[in-house]
């Protein structure tokens, strides 16, 4: 069984799309001479010139035109197979309680809008605001995870953990996605 260099497939796709060795070289991150050699290898492998000179540009042969759609679909599929799996999270299905350590100022400015936004996007997510008496981040790193998020700078203790709706002209919120430390 003859081995096939599958890198040639990606190069063929780019060459057929660009119809220029120079432009293809730029997209492939290769030198012009390396791309020209790749085109020569493709011609040898297929037994067809694939791209021929017509004035100052290259035009695909009838065989290359037949291959173009299949080659593009194959390279797209190969990229999809080799791409890292993307876990698409649906916030509407997320069921979790997040604890946000924050000072009173942060809670007063952002809590109502943040809770409203989270409730709309992820109805099963609950936010718990906990006092942040100091700048120490150790509670975020402990096994009990007493705080998923830290925010604010003021060294004040929250007077109450109860949150009431506040009105504010602020139209933004400070949220950082959770990541394990």
Low-confidence stretches: 143-181
State the helicity in percent bands. 40-55%
Q: Topology as H/E string? A: HHHEEHEHEHE
- How many DSSP H or I helices? 6
Mean pLDDT: 78
What CATH architecture label of the largest domain applies? 3-Layer(aba) Sandwich
- Please report the total strand number as a whole number: 5
First-residue to last-residue Cα separation:
50 Å
Proportion of strand residues: 5-15%
Number of domains: 2
| Molecular shape | elongated
Numbering strands along the chain, what is their spatial order in the largest sheet? 4-3-5
Characterize this entry briefly.
The chain has about 180 residues and is α/β, with parallel strands linked by helices.
SSE topology:
Blueprint: H1 7-18, H2 21-28, H3 32-46, E1 51-54, E2 57-60, H4 62-82, E3 96-102, H5 104-121, E4 125-131, H6 138-141, E5 149-150
Parallel strand pairs: 3-4, 3-5
Antiparallel strand pairs: 1-2
Helix pairs in contact: 1-2, 1-3, 1-4, 2-3
Key phrases:
181 residues; alpha/beta; Arc Repressor Mutant, subunit A; 2 domains; three-stranded parallel sheet; two-stranded antiparallel sheet; 43% helix; elongated; disordered C terminus
Q: Could you characterize the architecture of this molecule?
A:
43% of the residues lie in helices and 13% in strands. It contains six helices and five strands, in the order H-H-H-E-E-H-E-H-E-H-E. The protein has helices spanning 7-18, 21-28, 32-46, 62-82, 104-121, 138-141; strands at 51-54, 57-60, 96-102, 125-131, 149-150. The longest helix has 21 residues, at 62-82. It is elongated, with a radius of gyration of 29 Å. It starts with 6 loop residues before the first helix and ends in a 31-residue tail after the last strand.
């Amino acid at each position: 069984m003859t081995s096939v260099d599958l890198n040639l497939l990606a190069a063929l796709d780019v060459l057929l799309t660009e119809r220029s060795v120079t432009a293809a070289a730029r997209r492939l991150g290769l030198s012009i001479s390396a791309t020209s050699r790749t085109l020569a290898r493709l011609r040898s492998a297929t037994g067809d010139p694939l791209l021929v000179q017509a004035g100052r540009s290259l035009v695909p042969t009838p065989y290359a035109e037949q291959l173009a759609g299949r080659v593009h679909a194959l390279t797209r599929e190969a990229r999809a197979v080799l791409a890292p799996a993307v876990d698409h999270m649906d916030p509407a299905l997320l069921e979790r309680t997040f604890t946000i350590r924050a000072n009173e100022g942060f809670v007063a400015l952002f809590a109502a809008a943040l809770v409203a936004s989270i409730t709309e996007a992820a109805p099963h997510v609950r936010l718990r605001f906990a006092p942040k008496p100091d700048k120490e981040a150790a509670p975020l790193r402990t096994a009990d995870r007493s705080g998923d998020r830290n925010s604010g700078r003021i060294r004040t203790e929250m007077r109450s953990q109860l949150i009431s709706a506040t009105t504010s002209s602020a139209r933004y919120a400070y949220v950082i996605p959770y990541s394990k430390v």
